């Protein structure tokens, strides 16, 4: 290589080429950059770790070490494979949990408790309502939804089905699907449902106040007779004592409700009778919604051995759970009992 002169006039040699730029012996070609000597050598840019080259995320690696160790793989092996030190992993493992994670863990405990107390029926909206309105917690509904989703907690939901065809309304329909009531005991709806047991079917008739969604009376029997619906109506009148000609009792065209005995007791009680369209469940939609909730949260949850067992469960579910505790979005996430109490104590109530 020719000599070069520096600023003082002295001669110096030029920079020596790097080893990878020297010509290979016997080939006359320069060695490619990055090629290692020897057969079977690894490319240093590919790296030998599990993560991508130049990735420096110790928290991620430590988390992977802990997950691998859960499968009975020695920590030393996991640390060597992931390229972290055992001392660093032990130091990370001993650090306290972040405040956010601790808060989420405590909130998840409350969510599980609320979900269990709801008989596993509450979804995220009702759980959030119970946390904020019932327990006074300040929490966003999206956070509740996320924690429930991550923990695999969900409420009971109803699959959507096909709608029935709509028939012409009758002249006796005083409601016209307007189920909004301005005060308690203005509009009642009633209907019958049935459910099988190992001994046979059990029938339940109920009366619901449209103002608060509260079941004001119900009756249970092994036969679907006029006495079944008369007993439910009588229980409602005895409990609420509405003034004469002030309450509408709306039903379908079932034979029990069109019977002479039921009509007479209806007039004797001072109630105003109303009936929806024949064969159209939407003319008694609020009562159908109640039956759907009871079917989902109680009746279909198990096989019932005896009628007595099912009758006791229905009574307990209505009087000890649905009326006093279950929250309704249409009532501002209040229960029927709480909604009526709020109305009763409101200054604007006449």
Automatic annotation (TrEMBL):
Functional summary from the UniProt entry:
Involved in the transposition of the insertion sequence.
Q: Which organism is it from?
A: Actinomadura montaniterrae
Instruction: Extract the InterPro entries matched here.
Output: HTH-like_dom, Integrase_cat-core, RNaseH-like_sf, RNaseH_sf, Transpos_IS3, Transposase_IS3/IS150/IS904
**Which GO molecular function entries does the Swiss-Prot or TrEMBL record give?**
nucleic acid binding
One BP annotation, GO: DNA integration
Query: Composition bias, kind Gly residues: at what positions?
Result: 37-50
Query: Looking at the Swiss-Prot or TrEMBL record, what is one Pfam family this protein matches?
Result: HTH_21
Q: Where is this region: Disordered?
A: 1-54
Protein name, entry field: IS3 family transposase
Q: Residue limits of the Integrase catalytic domain?
A: 180-344
Q: Residue spans with biased composition (Basic and acidic residues)?
A: 17-27
Mind telling me which residue stretches traverse the membrane in this protein? none
């Amino acid at each position: 290589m020719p000599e070069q002169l520096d600023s003082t006039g002295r001669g110096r040699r030029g920079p020596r080429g790097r080893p990878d730029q020297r010509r290979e012996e016997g080939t006359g070609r320069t060695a490619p950059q990055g090629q290692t000597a020897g057969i079977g050598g690894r490319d240093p840019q590919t790296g030998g770790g599990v993560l991508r080259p130049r990735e420096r995320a110790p928290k991620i690696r430590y988390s992977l070490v802990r997950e691998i160790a859960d499968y009975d793989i020695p920590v030393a092996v996991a640390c060597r494979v992931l390229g972290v030190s055992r001392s660093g992993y032990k130091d990370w493992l001993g650090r306290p949990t972040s405040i956010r994670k601790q808060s989420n863990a405590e909130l998840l405990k409350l969510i599980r408790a609320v979900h269990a107390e709801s008989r596993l029926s509450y979804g995220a909206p009702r759980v959030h309502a119970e946390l904020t309105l019932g327990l006074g917690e300040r929490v966003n509904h999206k956070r509740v939804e996320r924690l429930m989703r991550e923990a695999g907690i969900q409420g009971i939901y109803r699959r959507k089905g096909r709608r029935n065809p709509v028939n012409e309304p009758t002249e006796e329909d005083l409601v016209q699907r307007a189920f909004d009531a301005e005060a308690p005991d203005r509009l009642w709806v009633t209907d019958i449902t049935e459910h099988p047991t190992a001994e046979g079917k059990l029938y339940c008739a109920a009366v619901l106040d449209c103002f608060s969604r509260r079941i004001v009376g119900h009756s249970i029997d092994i036969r679907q007779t006029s006495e079944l619906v008369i007993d439910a109506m009588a229980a409602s009148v005895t409990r609420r004592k509405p003034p004469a000609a002030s309450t509408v009792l709306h039903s379908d065209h079932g034979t029990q409700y069109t019977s002479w005995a039921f009509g007479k007791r209806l007039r004797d009680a001072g109630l105003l009778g109303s009936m929806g369209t024949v064969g159209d469940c939407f003319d008694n939609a609020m009562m159908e919604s109640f039956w759907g909730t009871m079917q989902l949260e109680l009746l279909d949850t198990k096989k019932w051995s005896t009628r007595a067992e099912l009758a006791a469960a229905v009574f307990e579910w209505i009087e000890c759970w649905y009326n006093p505790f279950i929250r309704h979005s249409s009532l501002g996430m209040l229960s029927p009992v709480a909604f009526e109490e709020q109305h009763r104590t409101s200054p604007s109530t006449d």
